[in-house]
Amino acid sequence: MTLTDQKLQDVAATPLTLLDELVLTLLNEDSGYFRQVPGWNLNCAVVGAALAELSLIYRIDTDLESLTLLDKTRTGDPCLDPLLSEIAGEANQYNAQYWIERLIPKADSIIDMTLDRLVGLKILQHHEGDFWSLAQGAWKSGYHTSSEVGTAVEFVKTRISRAIFNNEIPGPRDVVIICLIETCDVLRYIFELDEESEVRVQQICKMDLIGRSIADAVSENIAGSLFRRSALTKAIPRLKVRKLLGSKHLRSGNLPALMAELHEEYGPVFELRVPFQDPMIFLVGPETNHWVHRHGRMHLRARDYLEDFEKVYGGVGLLPALDGADHFRYRKSIQPGYSRSRLEGQLDMVFSKARENLATWNVGEARIAVTMCRNLVNSELSPLSISIDSQDVADDMHKFKERALKTHLARILPKFMLHTPSMRRRAKLIDEVVDRVLRVHTPAQRAGCPRDLADELLNMHASDRQFLPESNLRFVLSAPLIASMYVGDQLAFIAYALLAQPEYLERIQDEADALFADGDPDGEALTGPAIDITRRFIMECLRMYPIVPLSVRNVMNACEVEGYELPEGVRVFIAQTATHYMSDVFPDPFTFDIDRYVAPRKENVGIGYAPYGLGTHTCLGSRWTELQLAINLLMMVHYYKLEIAPKKYQLKISPFPSMSPNKKLKFNVTERRRELPV
């Protein structure tokens, strides 16, 4: 038996708890999250399952009237022990409904730990954006189940279906699960229930006293939640326009710092009203970040804000505007094209294309920082992701995208500004880019070539032309040029920060020179301690200069956030990076400090560090981007000496449509440190 086989056998012998089985039953693989159970209902069911588990292992006893402590000995389960400790610490005796209400604040952490446990058991796989699906290993017959019915999920569902449809006598655990998912009104989405089977479900729910008491307590809490929200909501504070206009951070373009400043006075939720526009509601701070990350998928929608922008490219249902199951399916389909491993597999091309671009830098010239960095990034990104050279059109494509965002998203320019002669000319380049991509992605042209993002997209188009229609190809196949704009702007911020701080420049030059001393480094070297300073320097730049400082969504289901009610239809601005400038999250936030990211500080751990967004719309290519930024920065300082021009330049940020250094910032090429290999 191999070591891997032994590990699989050990994991397979690990029994699943009621919490594990409830989560697996509620998981909807199509959407990558739980079935559409409202947050409060889900939390009630999770706490109910935890109490039922404590009852089944004889730590508590519960009936329709009371919940009694039997044994306060710790179970060793981090999901259960905090609940048991709280019950043991209460002198008075209460019923299950009371304890579910009291323990609801622990539900989120219980869900997180249960999901982490199932990932650790190789039953679930975690995806960027907090999505989960069955792990590949979980499909092994009998794995985690001690049976031959298939996966762990199928094992639980098979037991439940036998009890409902075959009239088999269910065990106590099955009764509890059936009671809970029936109480949450999810059972009918898992199985097709006719009248006879619905009667059978009701019979099962009466078979076990524990199941009945827990389910009744959950049901009472679910019903009560409808009245709880309206009783607690508060009036949303209104931001004064003069307060906004008077901020130094607005004048400098630093939107995260501005939002952090407003949070101090107005709190986590506030409203801005300007003439002739709908009210804008801002969500700011670590608490709202957590809410968006965990609950946003149930209440917020991207489509309303982005549908006008989609029309610019002639598309409908583009990834940024999708939500729910369609969004998860799309991400899963193209995720390999954005993976760090895909980039690591083609490092030779990255180094080669970067050097080709670096060779055009002439000593003595000063280049606009943003344009210089966008072109460098695009020289690599286009060949890697869509297998074409687009340097001749990249600048025009960037200008068109910026104008489209300013007219159709930020709405700081009238829409006719996208239809000027120069913009019409640039719009036609989109079709030219698509034609170039299609010409090199025929079967004969792709034979023997490494797979790229365009391959993933065209395969998805061929397999489901309704999901990814031809009308959407204009956007998706030109998207890498758009991505090079964002990554290039981030690189410009990083390069500026490095040149402005000579003490860091010397340390990163040393890393670069050591890394390339014996030829080009491999993926392992670019991940390990050899670039520790570079990695942490980039992380700090992402904190101080996040290129996408906020996200915009529409409320599709009315909800409550931090005691404030958000009605259906209202537009919210999620300032997820405001936490980057909050001293309780990042002490002394205006000080550049790369030691924030080492133990014991590790200030980036948690929801306060959000340069790539939150929740389901977290950037799919974040790990690719981090590696590409590191490679480009290291190569820049290895081959050249640069200076900020003008020398006394003070950074000014252009905040719209995304954050970037303004065009006055230039980099002067003062010296070529070593010759570029031919």
Full CATH superfamily name of the largest domain = Cytochrome P450
Look up the CATH topology of the largest domain. Cytochrome p450
Number of helices: 29
Overall shape: it is globular
Count of individual beta strands? 18
In percent terms, what proportion of residues is strand? 5-15%
Summed over residues and divided by their number, the pLDDT gives a mean of 90
Could you tell me how far the N terminus lies from the C terminus, measured between alpha carbons in angstroms? 51 Å
Q: What is the annotated CATH architecture of the largest domain?
A: Orthogonal Bundle
| Helix fraction bin | 40-55%
Radius of gyration: 28 Å
- Which structural class do the helices and strands define? alpha+beta
Count of the separate structural domains: 2
- Please report the first level of CATH classification, the CATH class of the largest domain: Mainly Alpha
| Biggest sheet architecture | 5 strands, mixed
Order of strands, widest sheet: 7-8-14-11-9
> Spans of 5+ residues with little confidence (pLDDT < 50)?
1-13, 141-149
Your description of this structure?
The protein has two domains: 3-229, yeast vps74-n-term truncation variant fold; 289-672, Cytochrome P450 (Cytochrome p450). It has 29 helices and 18 strands. The strands form seven sheets. It has a five-stranded mixed sheet with strand order 7-8-14-11-9. With 678 residues, it is an alpha+beta fold.
